[in-house]
Design a protein that fits this description.
homodimer; 3-stranded antiparallel β-sheet; elongated; DNA-binding
DNA sequence: CCATTATAGTTTGTTCTGCAAACCTTACGA
DNA sequence: TCGTAAGGTTTGCAGAACAAACTATAATGG
């Protein structure tokens, strides 16, 4: 029987970060200072509603910060990664790498 | 505006493989010739029902093969990765790496 | 100057998915 | 033979992703 490590790795996968759309959002924000709503929508291919709800969840977790500016009378939304968000993303990549590589040490389960 | 590539990468993330429990199952199976049901259950920490349903989905996608042997009157289930499953997993690791690294080229979206 | 279309989001409702509780079947022990 | 354990399967529900519908403001045009 292997150690409990694999189970721990699975549990360590933060679903909030792991979900494909949010993973893409976080990856995009990690690469730039900030981005606006429409840019992220194009980048991810998500519908507006869907993107809004994903951002709301990331905001609730303090992974992104949402700033709304009034520009030309119109409300524009800018997103950026918080330090916590950056940490969570880095930790996630690390968890995935661990899961990938550690599996090789688990041996046969027959 | 960036190319459409990021969107494509997101779309390329196979949810069937991406889901944490199944990712762990596939990673485990990739590391051994085959494993039995109980071994996988311990490895993943999943409940029986949950594991069964995940395996059913992987089986439906031809990613794993399920063999049931009658041993000591009891039905034992053995799982192994199909070539398609192995390919899907490898492709998935590659997609994740691409998403991770390519994000850096997207630049600011402001 | 009013109507239309476009932009930028939010809210609402449906559908799908993961999860565990309950159930089934066979074997084993007292 | 009655109870308990092992090994899975089926069912029901809570939550999450997704898009359609809605709101609000700004540019366009007749």
């Amino acid at each position: 029987m292997p150690s409990q490590a694999p189970f721990i790795e699975i549990a360590a996968l933060d679903r909030l970060v792991h979900e494909p759309a949010r993973l893409a959002i976080l990856a995009a924000l990690a690469a730039c200072r900030r981005a606006d709503f429409v840019y992220l929508q194009r980048l991810t291919g998500l519908s507006k509603g869907n993107l809004a709800s994903h951002l709301a969840k990331l905001d609730a977790a303090q992974y992104v910060s949402i700033e709304k500016h009034k520009a030309r009378g119109r409300m524009l939304t800018f997103l950026s990664l918080t330090p916590a968000g950056r940490d969570a993303l880095e930790a996630h990549w690390a968890s995935l790498a661990t899961l990938r590589d550690e599996a090789r040490t688990w041996g046969d389960g027959v």
